[in-house]
Specification:
Elements lengths: L2 H13 L9 E7 L5 H4 L6 H9 E8 L6 H10 L3 H4 L25 H7 L4 E4 L11 E3 L14 H4 L4 H10 L13 H17 L3 E6 L1 H9 L4 H24 L5 E7 L4 E2 L2 E3 L10 E6 L2 E6 L8 H13 L3 H4 L2 E4 L1 H7 L7 E5 L3 E3 L26 E3 L3 E2 L13 E5 L6 E7 L3 H8 L22
Length: 454
């Protein structure tokens, strides 16, 4: 079957969702590390994504939150709240060296799960970040441990009782540490099979699914490696699996599919360890990829913040010009506008290619390649070379732009908008399902849903 004919079939599949249709089911599919070129550039092998663009509304780009990290952004999408309000500032709690933000109890504002439950609507989540929650009707949460880093051992403890076993019997076969390993392409395949089974058999009003493989490949190899193209083709196939489940369920006319990402990606070459410059000061940076945030030390009064800020900025501004240009300083006023953690004193935002490390120890640099200083320099090991890819940067940087596509019931057909934000996803889903949800920061972006839904 050639690509053109396949696209025709896919367009036909979802083109019946006209203005007259009402959404009773919303499927939110998150591709970790989803970049707009995956659907805007035909050279990417993403037939399903590109077909959904034709049958729905897409965005030139979607803005993440700051830092542009997975857990804060996924939380923003189901709460309509920036990190300052949601309380999910990073993937891990501030100061944590182990567990991530697994439990929705850490979220300080209402979630879609809670709002929909109050309206007696069923919900589901598959491998969604920050989703260990009794309020989700059919749930297979994302959670792991040092002892069990796979994505099935720990979820068995917190999933809806009996759900994983039912899915193994009827859809996936036995799930184990090998086929549910984040480094294995099979994990996204199994997540799609789980989601497809849940949708067909449980018929939830809201289903959220997280696909992780594209993120892992970009972290390891940078933006444009062959393995990234393979991961994108794989997740595109998995979206097709879910689309097919929607068609076979008989619910397609009343179903909306929304594809989102949590951040873009930058290929990286340099690491900067700013804490090495401020060891004697009563403050410490917490690194978040392409950004880092300064916090006062325990027992230090807020009254000392002004002097701390001056000392830190003076130290940073003394760096050689070729190093100082690698980042900018973000003051507290700008952090407030960005909705970042209100406890941070200031932040640093790197240019693409540079990332931060919170380590206080100098790196053992043995290869003086691009990004390092000359041998015997006092800053040796403060800046050093690296490879791969990362995120966490200012979400307004083009490389951090992520993607958005909506298609199906209640959505305009063949339209492109310029921009939508992660915090705008929750209001969109609520409106499609006819539910009131007054989110703290999100707004209903015009141009996506049909006039009938406005």
């Amino acid at each position: 079957m050639n690509k053109t004919f396949l696209q025709f079939l896919l367009v036909t599949l979802f083109s019946f969702s006209t203005m007259a249709q009402e959404s009773k089911h919303v499927i939110l599919l998150s591709i970790d590390g989803f970049r707009p070129e995956f659907y805007n550039d035909p050279s990417w092998n993403a037939v399903n994504l590109q077909a959904l663009v034709k049958t729905g509304t897409s965005a030139d780009h979607m803005l993440s939150v700051f830092p542009s990290y997975t857990y804060p952004t996924h939380t923003a999408m189901v709460t309509g709240a920036f990190p300052a309000r949601s309380g999910i500032y990073y993937n891990q709690p501030v100061g944590s060296k182990g567990d991530w933000h697994w439990f929705t109890s850490a979220i300080k504002v209402p979630t879609l799960w809670q709002v929909l439950k109050k309206s007696n609507l069923t919900t589901s989540a598959v491998e969604w970040p920050v989703s260990v929650d009794k309020d989700i009707t059919y749930n297979i949460p994302e959670i792991w441990s040092d002892a069990y880093p796979d994505r099935i051992t720990e979820p068995r403890k917190y999933a809806t009782p009996g759900l994983i076993e039912e899915i193994e019997l009827n859809a996936t076969g036995k799930l184990d540490k090998f086929n549910m390993d984040e480094e294995a392409f099979s994990m996204d395949d199994n997540s799609a099979r789980m989601a497809a089974y849940i949708f067909k058999t449980k018929k939830p009003a809201f289903l959220a699914v997280h696909f992780a493989q594209a993120d892992g490949q970009q972290h390891e190899h940078g933006r444009d490696a062959d393995s990234v193209k393979l991961a994108v083709a794989g997740v595109d196939h998995n979206i097709g699996v879910i689309m097919e489940a929607v068609r076979r369920s008989g619910m397609a006319e009343n179903t909306t599919i929304i594809i989102v990402g949590d951040h873009g990606f930058s290929t990286i070459h340099t690491v900067f360890r700013p804490n090495m410059l401020i060891k004697t000061l009563p403050a410490k940076f917490i690194a978040a990829g392409g950004s880092c945030f300064l916090y006062r030390s325990a027992g230090t009064s807020k009254a000392n913040d002004a002097s701390t800020v001056k000392a830190v900025t003076d130290s940073l501004n003394k760096l050689p010009k070729d190093k100082r240009k690698l980042f900018r300083i973000i003051d507290r006023k700008e952090l407030d506008k960005m909705g970042a953690d209100s406890s941070a004193i200031l932040a640093l935002a790197a240019i693409p290619g540079t990332v931060f490390s919170g380590s206080l120890a100098p790196a053992k640099v043995t290869n003086h390649g691009p990004g390092t200083l000359i041998q015997n320099n006092p800053l040796e090991g403060v800046f050093f070379p690296t490879t791969g890819g990362h995120h966490g940067y200012d979400p307004n940087i083009k490389e951090m732009h992520t993607g958005f596509i909506a298609s199906g019931a209640g959505v305009n057909k063949g339209k492109m908008i310029n921009e939508i934000r992660a915090v705008d996803i929750a209001p969109l889903i609520a409106r499609l399902l006819g539910i009131e949800f007054n989110t703290p920061d999100g707004k209903l972006v015009p141009g996506i849903i049909t006039n009938k839904k406005l």
